[in-house]
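Incident log, structure service

09:12 report received: a user says their structure output differs between two submissions of the same chain.
09:20 pulled the input from the user's history:
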Amino acid sequence: MASNQYYIKEPAVAAPTRPASPVRRFVGRYMYRWHRLLGLLTVVPVVLWALSGLSHPLMSNLLRPTIAHETVPAPPLTAAALAVPVAQVLAWHHLPTVQNVRVVWANKQAYYQVTTASGKLRYFGTADGRELPGGDRAYAEAVARYLLADSTSAVASAERLTRYTADYKFINRLLPVWKITFARPDGMAVFIETGHSRLGTFNNHARATFLWVFGMMHNWDFLDGLPRPLHLGIMLVFTTIIWLSALSGLVIYGFVRGKMRQPRSAQDAVGWLRKRHRTLGLWVAFVTFTFALSASYHLWQKFTPDRRDDVARVSLFAAKDLTIPLAGSLAYGDLATLPITQVSLARVGGQPYYRLVSKAADGHPTVQYRSTRDGQLLPDGEFRYAAELGQEFMAKLNTTVPGAASATNPESLSAAADCCEAPGLVAETKTTIGTPAASPAPAQANLASPELVTKFAGEYGFVNKRLPVVKLAFAGAGHPALYVEPATGRLAAYVTDDARREGLSFAVLHKFFLMDWAGKTVRDFVAMFSALGVLVVTLYGLVLLLRR
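09:34 re-ran on a clean worker, output below:
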């Protein structure tokens, strides 16, 4: 009989559970919670910024209204057109000193545009010396009609702006301007800087509405009543939270997705909406991160005041110093063959000069400085004048508190004669005539050779508005560069390494300028598509939060 053998099956021993990694514990315990909390805090700001970002290319390019002309022509000047010498006109009208004299055209007639010692613009016929009543408004209206090619529509209103407003913001740079609104179905309004015969901007009803909505949604203009640092600070807090939220989403769904816990049962399976939020979120999280991070950097940089309006050259010229008539100055040297199109006054090294602009055969401007006393040519006058301006401006910027020389102070004009503070724009009070500078500002060893800039590019972009300008690069901390506009004696831009880094960040990460190679339309489409993706993912996340 065979013996019975019994085999006792030993119970299986479960393998020891592998402890969760620190990353998994951290993600499970904190990252989900933080991601949901940060998303909840910023859902409204993200929706506002995504919608406004989506509409910006439409507003600025695709649906932007057009006008017939965007520049004001400058016909060649002739001696016959300047029949009455400017010095005689000034004597007739009891103007012993002026800030500037230009020649402009309105309704096919030439006028001396005289900037008085108090900063007021007056207009006198070059043929008879008679003053044009209401000259500045009349000239602004004539320029606006030319730009629109509209000689029939009535003027609904004309307003001279000396401060930036809701529909004419700081981004336009030029002040003072006239706002000429026409009684047309589209409500077209044209902003004209009469002092230098150029367009500030133009808006019809649709674009004005777009700008208002964009300002409210993107720049949060509804906070304008707060102090500017607080306004910027609130926006900075939200942009920072947004890029932290985007970063947490990238970490959760992009880098540690394999370490996330699996559903415990079929009931816990991830739903369709959550899957779409995760999938689309991975595609747009990086764009959201770059949008918000560059916006935070941009806002942080704005805490440093923009100082371009803190300085300007305001010179006074005695009528008796205009010994050489303008008509006679047209016949000197090359000016006899190159027709002069623009004329103004400038003081270089304490001496008064006519600044004469002509166009060469290739279309490039040629600038000469001729003494108002004897007609002598100032060699390399444009660069010498620009360097003198740059040295004064840099010295002033280095010795004043930002904003201390603000152009909002009406008393600054009297203190600025032949100096470098911006003139007051609010009030036009009579100026105390200062003693003209006897010599140019001392040369600075750290000033590099001036460079003429005739188009917007690189660190001097379209946002600066003024052309042509001269770039003055200085050695030293931050490698500062001043862009000065000799035609106006003003500072067009002040750029340092900090501004260069922020500008590059904003251009590449926020405005997609790396796509310029594909054309502006493609770049705008990519930007709109990216903003739309951010909006969709945000709305998905909002629905998920509401369903919890």
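09:41 both user submissions now match this output. Likely a transient worker issue. Closing.
09:42 reviewer note: The first helix runs from residue 22 to 62. Residues 259-270, 405-417, 423-442 have pLDDT under 50 and may be disordered.
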